[in-house]
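#struct-pred

JT: dropping the chains for the assembly here, can someone run the whole complex?
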Amino acid sequence: MAATAHEQLALQSLRTSIPWTRPSAPGLGAIALDGLSVRFAGGRGETVALANVDLAIAPGEFVAILGPSGCGKSTLLNVIAGFEHPSAGRVLVDGAPVTAPGPERPVVFQQHSLFPWMTALDNVAFGLRMAGQASARERARHYLGLVGLADFHHRYPHELSGGMQQRVGLARALAVEPSILLMDEPFGALDAQTRVLMQEQLLRLWEQWRHTVVFVTHDIDEAIFLADRIMVFGLLPNVLCGAFDVDLPRPRGRGARASACYQGLYDALFDLIRQESLKTFGAADTVTAS
Amino acid sequence: MKMYRTVIFSILALGSVLWTSAGAAQAEPVKVRIGYGTALHGEVAKVLAKSDIAKRHGLDVEATFFQYGPPQIEALVSKSIDLAFTSLVPTASYLAKRPGAVVTIASLGAAAHGLVVPASSPVKTLRDFKGKTIAVAFGTDSYIDLLVSLKAVGLIRDADVKVVNVPPNEQPAALEQKLADGVVLREPQLQKFLDRGAREIQRWPHHLWVIARAEFLAEHSEIRRLLVDALGEAAVYVASHPSQAAEWFAEDLRLAPKLVETIAAKNPLFANAKTPGDISVKVPAEIKTFASRRARELVEFGIAQKPPEFVF
Amino acid sequence: MRSLVRAGLLGFLGIALLLAAWTIAARKLDNAILLPPPTALLAGLRETLVDGTLARDLAASLKRVLCGFGLAATTALALVLTTVSFRPMRQLVLPVLALLRPIPPIAWVPIAILWFGLGDSPSYFVTAVAAFFPIFINSLAGVGTVEEQHLRAARCLGAGRLALIRFVYLPSALPNVFTGLKVGLGQSWMAVVTAELIAAQSGLGYMIELNRLQLETPRVLVGMLVIAVVGALMTLSLSWAETLLFPWRQQHRRKGAIG
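RK: done, full complex below.
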């Protein structure tokens, strides 16, 4: 689907006024998980959120993390982001261990993460302000334009729809020009139509930029449409139980969903996830597949 | 035959007279709710409440202790009490708003109130209060007496002297904490602080009397006479049993009974009487004259629009 | 528009009925000390406005409230900041405050008089005490309401400790702080009147007490009316300011956002 006139204009203005550069030198944004385990002490003993994960993500790769509820996908993202610490193993970004959150790895959350006391523009400008950037608001205006919300710069989050809020969240993360973009089910709270539009917009932006993206989702369609590679996590134990390459050509449009490659991948993922999901359902509760 | 009729009628007539008079003697005692304060005639009130004098006059007395006059007036307004042991100014305040509401039925002599300063104070005369503060209970005779005296030495309140309202309960604290430069205290607190070393600048007599609700008096035909007789007898009791009366009253005041007894003895009602028979609670002419003067003073100091008319 | 007119008419009718009932009752009682008719109240209002005593007493009460309130606000907020920043401070301060809080402001009046004498000072103290606890408690709670999501978002965009306080903790807590200020102001207002009944020589409470001693019930009612109206105005204006300052807090009441 072609970019809207508005977005084309925004991209144009961006190209002319600010030199278009890759945010960081090529080759940055590599993520390595080495024997990562995360355990939480709970009321009834320990919960193992992740067990012994080994994972390598190349710079510029779009990786989707897929799995049933409770498989530790969000925990994985939190550890890479720096919100949580590993109980065992290491998280390395470009060879250096992750100790704290930072603007090299911003997160786009599912909902309610915009600062309600700031306008859309100030939200987007936040990271730039933290970095001490001059003319932060001007730069923020461009990023807001990239997601097609230039006209809404003065609005407060509660005056925006769910989809618009997520676009602002995305612009806010992009504004700090990160080498890694972390996304935690960012479109999960949106309706089906908006979700599809958001996926398309995300891809358009990413294809200009090509930063590393770690995208957590429970939606198989979404994972296949967006990612280069899909990592599936299982339940009990919460380990990496499958890695799938997505061989669909880019740029991907609506037509991609109809291809045989897509269908095959979908079925494989579906079966794997179902198999894992059943572990939390008793055998007698389920209808056996025909 | 005629004679028998006369005899029978006479017996019947006599019988009915005896019956009604006996009935009258055994009639329900009239309930009287009295209010009294810290002023010295509270002694008489306590005697009424504690002794059998009231009963013998066909009265069932219920006594309530108030801080001073103004709250008693409120109680009269709301008909919570029928009789109040107070003084002229609170009575006048009520009469200014509702003429004829209360009647003065008895006079119980006089105590005193005085303007005192701490022992260490530089103030020697009333004039020395220029630019200073005096604490007094508003709405009482001490208030008007103070204003009259200040005016007499050329001091105007607010302009020359700050006069602040401190009710009797707070007055000891005001003096002890030196919250004001001078405090007007009433007996027997006055004597207590003079004994402790406070210095008196000026003293005025505090006339004590008893008022009753006009409505209450109208409800019961003989009640005024019964009340005045009971009050008279109670006053005689105080004169003849000074220690007992002082003890009863001192309990409410939380003071030493001996102190109360000493001051009560100075009351002209008792001091001027050679024998108990000389004690009369009838309102004397001098008090009525003083009352007219007080009524004019109330207008002079802006408490009333026109002079209130006392009812005796 | 029609519903607005109707609401106005009904409100007006309600007040008119009240005044009618009041007039009838006053006439039947025929006791100006117990229940003066509304006309006496209005006359008293006019008189005290014209001779300036109402304005003077109102100004005196307001001055005491604002000073005491200001004192309470600065103390409470400073205490909240230290309590939040240093754990031992929290453990030191909270039990003491929990012990003092149930004491109603009026109970502080006698000791305030002893400590500060007659005049304005005890009123400042009592109004400050009245405002302090709502401000402190609400502000402290406000700090606790900060969303984890907002903290995380700020941190992963490069916010340091100071920036977190300034851009996340403070704005998150501000609506609760404001609520505390609103409640505190109302409490202060009530407390100042009770303090003035006993300790002061000016102000609305004093006006009521003085007129009570003179059995001037119409003016007592004037005092009460002014207290009620001013108290209501203070609350209303702060609530209105609240909707202006923190529009995002009303969002659950809004019909729906655009877009």
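JT: nice. Chain C touches chain B at residues 31-34, 113-114, 117-118, 198, 201, 206, 209-210, 212-216 (CB under 8 Å). Residues 161-199 of chain C form the longest helix (39 residues).
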